[in-house]
Amino acid sequence: MHMFYSMNGTLADQLQNHLANYGPPMMNSQRDGGEDPRMYMNGSSASVSTSNGSSSMGNDQKFPSYKRMAQRRKVPEGELCAVCSDLATGYHYGVASCNGCKTFFRRTIVSEQTFICQYNGNCDVNKNIRCACRHCRFNKCLLVGMDAKALQLPAIQNDRDRIGPTKKVKMSSGSDDEQATTPHRLQDQEIIDQLTQVEGLCQELRRCIIPEVTGVTHALTSPCLLFETTDLKVDTNIMFKELYPASMNDIRMWNIREMRICIEWAKTFDIYQRLNLFDQFALVRNFAFAFNLLNRVFYSPDHGPDKIVFQNGAFIMRQPQQQVQLSGCRPIYTRQMDEIMIPFRKLQLSVSEFATFKAALFFNPDALDLSAPAKTEVFEERNKYLGGLFTCITQKIGIPSGVQKYGSLLMMTASIQNILAQNEENMQVMELFKNWEVDPFVKELCMKRA
Amino acid sequence: MHMFYSMNGTLADQLQNHLANYGPPMMNSQRDGGEDPRMYMNGSSASVSTSNGSSSMGNDQKFPSYKRMAQRRKVPEGELCAVCSDLATGYHYGVASCNGCKTFFRRTIVSEQTFICQYNGNCDVNKNIRCACRHCRFNKCLLVGMDAKALQLPAIQNDRDRIGPTKKVKMSSGSDDEQATTPHRLQDQEIIDQLTQVEGLCQELRRCIIPEVTGVTHALTSPCLLFETTDLKVDTNIMFKELYPASMNDIRMWNIREMRICIEWAKTFDIYQRLNLFDQFALVRNFAFAFNLLNRVFYSPDHGPDKIVFQNGAFIMRQPQQQVQLSGCRPIYTRQMDEIMIPFRKLQLSVSEFATFKAALFFNPDALDLSAPAKTEVFEERNKYLGGLFTCITQKIGIPSGVQKYGSLLMMTASIQNILAQNEENMQVMELFKNWEVDPFVKELCMKRA
DNA sequence: ATGGGTTGGTCAAAGGTCGC
DNA sequence: AGCGACCTTTGACCAACCCA
């Protein structure tokens, strides 16, 4: 049911292992502030998952951690609520807090509400204005360490230890309309965090020597390299030395690498792994070049609006150069700069936003050759990332600007599509006139009806 | 009444003239009487409630007395409002009172209004005439002990972070901007309303005989036909008679009509009129076929997922037919159905949403050949419509679903772009092989570098 | 049992909405 | 252009519950 929460082999597990073994990847955290000793980003993001499986199992953990934390006597006289600085009435969900914040937190969790801040996501939360922005109040609850798993969710059928109705037993019928899921809000953040971490892993992989494969199918069916980056050798050839004009060989090399990384990236999505090979192929074929293009311009160091710069220092200039110009092929780099690179810079995308945007693009229900059952699944998946993207954007800049940023970003898909079409045309020309041999792996990935 | 398009006749002016039922908003909401020295909080309670020696005086230092007063259960059955003797709905601000007086008191406090009595300041206040004198009603509120301290300011801002509308949001137009509770909302609403009205005019024009023009430039520089639809004859040839398979001539006829309408539609945007002819041409050339396509599928009566039906009953089927198939041209109608028509239906777009979506698409800063200064202007304009579109969508279905609908809609631009590219390719083939003569007007509008 | 802490549940009274 | 019936949200209070 929940991709991040299933028992084994999930992305979450793999990330967990990877991080445990090798330390966290560099990632840009959008959460600032917080002298809070309890990290809830990595460690507890996994622990949230226990909400649907913890206490009912034969867990030798007698009581949740909040109990241990708070088992020391009552809250000291005059202690204040960690959320709003009102007078605390006790330790609730692991944190000294007032009745209001306690109830607010529980209500938000059980009703799975999602709030969005109108401003910058850093509204003040105190006794007097705690009700003004629910997004920031809930954020503060999480920040100070309120723990959702202290909640006795009805998800656990075992109602042995549930608190029944205090007044009336009006359980109308046994019709169970309960969703029994973790709250949406947390899920959004979870999605963003995971994508951002994977994005970091991709950047690591970009520095490594990537093992050869025999073809796309081979790549699709082998284990994901992103969790083995520490086992891979760093490729010294692609370290930056100096800026120099890219040759066709540079471009070819980066194309191959990026397409390989695209497949490794795709495999980090649990839902993708569950598709059949045919649909996997369809999705990746539909997206590989876009992946290539987007990463190229997003990660290009900013040397002005007329240069796309690769990691190793090779650059493409706006004015088509002899080296990268093939007869019969229309130059496409001008558009990549004007319609993708420059707008990206103007929009000031964060890494998290970029990562979530790519995921939303990847799960394209209109991808050519996608089977009908996959279409609906992919559509749902895309919606997840769209929601995540919106949350990610509006958290920082508020709704009114966020709506425009989100909209401008999504409308870039038109330009991307345009550039893709031109690229495909060029590849057909190359194929036809044999004036440049396209790598078979790239060809397999980029040409429709391959 | 015949209207020529004048330099300074804005769209709003023309709509007003055309529809003649759009009254200007009243801007005269002047605060009445500003010389009353009574302040609402301290001054007034001092002068009014001390005279009465209200019970709340003794203990309001620590926390509001209403809590203790009202902590005993419900207001007794049949208790009356202390202000107006209507039936009390509970203890509000420390006093048994009715809903009306409760709301009146809060409104008065938060808006910091000051009233003046027309008489002697001792008007009767009861259920029947409680609204007659607001000064005396407010006085009575204070007199019976309503306590401003019971107000929790700042207010809970549901509208800021709500996840969905309480019920159904009605669109209220034409109110003054003084309140400014949600200023951008009102502005958005105006945008939406205008676009929706223009959309209606387009539908009227579609039924009429459209005068011939010599070319795109001629069409761009003549007065806008949309405000003269009543002067145009209805075209009886295009009224619906029966369903029949479309011929190439049908398609050709509708293409020409729709492109003409596109230009008339474009001219309704004030900002568009202010662009130079070159940029006007760029925008309309970039969008004309999309306009054609979108209207075709959106307004196609629903005869299942395999038919696009024109107004006159001509229909295109999914399986390419002899009549509409030209050698060398790839069939494009399958994609129009699968990627545009069916998704539109699934998204359940309203006319307003559709109209706003088109405006956002039209103002495309990446349109080919658009001049640099126009780009930024067009970008800003698009943002306006993006905001409007989001408002329009979320008004009905709330934010979480709205984010996804908005996102899915905007991502359709990729498919639209794709279909456009195929279409252009087909037109080039036609041009090349001369197997079908494209109308020069359409050719001028649809082919790049025309 | 008992008592002091948690939990979830309750509902009067806050503020918000929108047809009238 | 304000009114108020009706709505959602809040949080003080309370019963159920869990350990020492």
Describe the structure.
Chains A, B: Its main location: nucleus. Chains A, B: Belongs to the nuclear hormone receptor family. 2 copies of one chain form a homodimer. With 450 residues, the first copy, chain A, is mainly alpha-helical. Chain A has 2 domains: 90-151, 2-Layer Sandwich (Erythroid Transcription Factor GATA-1, Chain A), CATH 3.30.50; 183-446, Retinoid X Receptor, CATH 1.10.565.10. The first copy, chain A, is built from 15 helices and 5 strands. The first copy, chain A, has a 3-stranded mixed β-sheet, covered by helices on one side. In chain A, helix 10 packs across helix 11 and helix 12 (351-362) packs antiparallel against helix 13. Chain A is elongated and about 80 Å long. At the A-B interface, helix 11, helix 13 and helix 14 of A face helix 14 and helix 15 of B. The structure holds a DNA duplex (20 and 20 nucleotides).
CATH superfamily of the largest domain in chain A: Retinoid X Receptor
Q: Based on helices, strands and strand pairing, what is the structural class of chain A?
A: mainly alpha
Shape of chain A: elongated
CATH fold-type name of the largest domain in chain A: Retinoid X Receptor
CA(first)-CA(last) distance of chain A: 34 Å
Task: Say how many strands of chain A there are.
Answer: 5
User: Unreliable segments of chain A (pLDDT under 50, ≥5 consecutive)?
Assistant: 1-8, 23-72, 154-160, 168-183
- Quaternary state reads homodimer
